[in-house]
Amino acid sequence: QLQRSDARRKLVVTDGVFSMDGDVAPLSDYVAACEDNDAWLMVDDAHGLGVLDDQGRGSVVAQGVNERVPVLMGTLGKGLGTAGAFVAGSHALIETLIQFARTYIYTTAMPAAVASATLVSLSKAREEHWRREKLVVLIQRFRAGAAQLGFTLMDSATPIQPLLIGADQQAMALSQQLREQGFLITAIRPPTVPDGQARLRVTLSAAHEESDVDALLAALEKVGCLTSDVGR
Ligand SMILES: Cc1ncc(COP(=O)(O)O)c(C=O)c1O
Which of 19, 58, 67, 163 is deepest in the core (most CB within 10 A)? Predict the structure, then answer.
């Protein structure tokens, strides 16, 4: 598609970690394709930041392409637990956004308290490796347990662990049954995901304990039994 394009400026935009599947974009391939075709790559790493790389610097550092991604954006409201977002790039890019991006110019600046809290989150993300190590343990525990129950997992090694259900109604019913048991697991339906691929979007955090994962698996076993052929 890039080769066929005769656009004067080309920008390829991708998530680093895909928000509905939890899988990771093959950034080296994208970088190479962009470099070969005079295009820019922009990575939205909302779900990689804090989680991937040994200091939580996200997908672009984890995949060793940070010097070759011209536009990196991240949100602060996911792994970092505050709110807001940033764009990182060349001085010329950032200066251009400051001068010309109307949505930035005409909005109230981030409150100092949020910026300060984000700085604390950043140092925790950088230094407290146990959080990522704990997440990996929780993810593996959840995946092993859900697979054993017969649920269909997706190809994800990140804290986004969708369980593929299929029909919208069934995903909604399961989400409701889980809520009644104290678990907030949203059902994701089309158009957010393709038709027939409704899912339960399980999102794990370092604040969870192994006992939480076990309790969720027990609840899934219970609701799975109430609903026929769930994810099988
Ligand atoms: C990939 C991605 N980018 C950006 C956002 C937006 O983040 P925020 O709600 O902090 O604006 C989301 C969130 O929901 C997301 O999944």
Answer: 58
